[in-house]
Q: What sequence folds into this?
């Protein structure tokens, strides 16, 4: 399915960008991590890399032209794919000049009203605001400050780790100077665009800036007017904020994805030769490279200690108030929206897993192979979805989207709640590859190292609580999916086979369906196909 790439926000003050140079042309093959274009912001010209693989089907902004953040920049998909609907949809907003012209005076007036605060900013002083690090982020929490007031800051230095509704991400500085002020303390939250920090020459008095800027940021119209709401297909801003057009001071030139993979594996990037543009290290340069990950690598993202146990005397009451994390608040919002908008119903089927157990044992005897029952369920779901396309849909009020690709969301429990990394094109992957991807993503999910792009785009979701001994449960649909499968534990029980009582390994599967898109008979047929694959696993290898 084609992916829409929008003009990204590459700096904290960027309202529009200019395409300085396209490094790819329509029809070119694109790999994840390839540099698409050089984009000129209000601060620098920066390389912008692709988060998708496919063919460049459309360029929305020619070289030398500018456009606001979130405007249609490009479309990437399969060669020959029809994207006429995406082009007309993506161009609709920019093609309406009248409202923009009417809005301009209001913005101008607002800026004039706050001009005393901007006039009070001394030369060389830069205000850093809370960035939008994911497509659904409305506010962020500072997990850790890596710099303190008075520290020297170089462009590209990591200032802080910021917790969004999806992950904890490193946020780097776009300025050089001294950290003069921290606006949001560790553990505190603030909306996007609130003052995060001030950087400037050492010894600069920023008291006037703080009083003036606070007034400016408290005005909703200036905080929100220049920036339109990001779309679900927006390229994650956080990953692009570390892309620099040049290198200096011996810094390693690598893509954000390569940096993350290297950090996870404990790989020294300075020892590698990059194959990207200008010798840039990209993901494929890390394939097959391994290293011992330092024990301290995850120290900054380690889970906060649990609240100490409270000793109560008999009859004493005690209550503790714990602030909800960004993740917990977003989970509550999304699941409530799903439960109260999608008419759920549930179907349960019991699957005999004796052949699956035997097949798994045989496969795991092979070298470098580790397959779990969950991997088998995922593979069976992917194959069943190809046969029952109605289950692999998305409800859109006036139309239904039929997804011809299978991207499986895998629910993973983390300390603050639940995240759903996505296994893309699962129907095209082997059991061992699915297992390796699930293990990698689940591990990074628990250390908050997943990127927003890795948690978007699912067409069907699987939630497995069998490892906790839960035999049967129901789940809330992970919208915009039309269904979610709940997987229970495998238990031995007495069943009747050919008139005789026998002991078999049984597992219950419960499918939650959105009745707007999936009728009862359709859901039942999907479960029957799924049951056939799992009870005869050799069919998944054909």
A:
């Amino acid at each position: 399915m084609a992916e829409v790439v929008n003009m990204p926000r590459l700096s904290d003050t960027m309202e529009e960008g200019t395409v300085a140079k396209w490094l790819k042309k329509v029809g070119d093959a694109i790999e994840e991590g390839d540099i698409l274009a050089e984009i000129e912001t209000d601060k620098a010209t920066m390389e912008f890399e692709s988060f998708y693989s496919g063919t460049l089907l459309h360029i929305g902004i020619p070289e030398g032209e500018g456009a606001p953040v979130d405007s249609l920049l490009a479309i990437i998909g399969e060669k020959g794919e029809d994207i006429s609907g995406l082009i007309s949809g993506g161009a609709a907003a920019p093609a309406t000049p009248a409202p923009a012209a009417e809005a301009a005076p209001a913005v101008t007036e607002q800026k004039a009203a706050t001009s005393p605060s901007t006039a009070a900013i001394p030369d060389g002083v830069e205000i850093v605001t809370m960035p939008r690090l994911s497509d659904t982020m409305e506010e962020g929490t500072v997990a850790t400050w890596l710099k303190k007031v008075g520290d020297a800051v170089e462009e590209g230095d990591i200032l802080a780790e910021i917790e969004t509704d999806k992950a904890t991400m490193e946020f780097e500085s776009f300025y050089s100077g001294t950290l003069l002020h921290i606006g949001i303390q560790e553990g505190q939250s603030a909306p996007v665009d609130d003052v995060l920090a001030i950087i400037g020459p050492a010894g600069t008095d920023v008291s006037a800036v703080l009083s003036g800027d606070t007034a400016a940021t408290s005005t909703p119209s200036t905080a929100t007017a220049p920036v339109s709401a990001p779309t679900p297909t927006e390229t994650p801003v956080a990953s692009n904020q570390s892309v620099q057009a040049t290198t200096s001071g011996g810094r390693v030139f690598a893509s954000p994805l390569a940096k993350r993979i290297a950090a996870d594996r404990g790989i020294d990037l300075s020892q590698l030769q990059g194959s990207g543009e200008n010798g840039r290290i990209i993901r494929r340069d890390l394939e097959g490279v391994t290293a011992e990950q330092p024990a301290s690598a995850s120290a900054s993202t380690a889970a906060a200690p649990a609240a100490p146990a409270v000793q109560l005397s008999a009859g004493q009451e005690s209550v503790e108030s714990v602030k909800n994390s960004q993740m917990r608040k977003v989970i509550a919002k999304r699941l409530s929206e799903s439960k109260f908008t999608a008419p759920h119903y549930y179907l349960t089927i019991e699957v005999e897993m004796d052949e699956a157990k035997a097949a798994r044992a045989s496969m795991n005897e092979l070298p470098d192979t580790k397959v779990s029952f969950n991997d088998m369920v995922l593979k069976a779901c992917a194959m069943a979805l190809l046969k029952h396309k109605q289950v692999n849909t998305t409800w859109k009020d006036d139309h239904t989207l039929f997804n011809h690709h299978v991207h499986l969301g895998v629910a993973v429990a983390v300390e603050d709640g639940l995240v759903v990394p996505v296994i893309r094109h699962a129907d095209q992957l082997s059991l061992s590859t699915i297992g390796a991807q699930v293990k990698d993503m689940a591990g990074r999910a628990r250390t908050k190292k997943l990127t927003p792009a890795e948690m978007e785009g699912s067409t069907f979701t699987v939630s497995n609580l069998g490892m906790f001994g839960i035999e049967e449960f129901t789940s809330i649909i992970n919208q915009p999916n039309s269904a979610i499968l709940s997987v229970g534990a495998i238990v031995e029980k007495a069943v009747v086979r050919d008139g005789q009582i026998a002991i078999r390994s049984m597992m219950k599967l419960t499918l939650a369906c959105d009745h707007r898109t999936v009728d009862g008979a359709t859901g039942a047929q999907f479960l029957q196909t799924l049951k056939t694959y799992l009870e005869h696993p050799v069919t998944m290898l054909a």
About this structure: The chain is about 25% helix and 25% strand. The longest helix spans residues 97-113. The chain has three domains: 98-224, 250-293, 328-540. The longest strand covers residues 483-497.
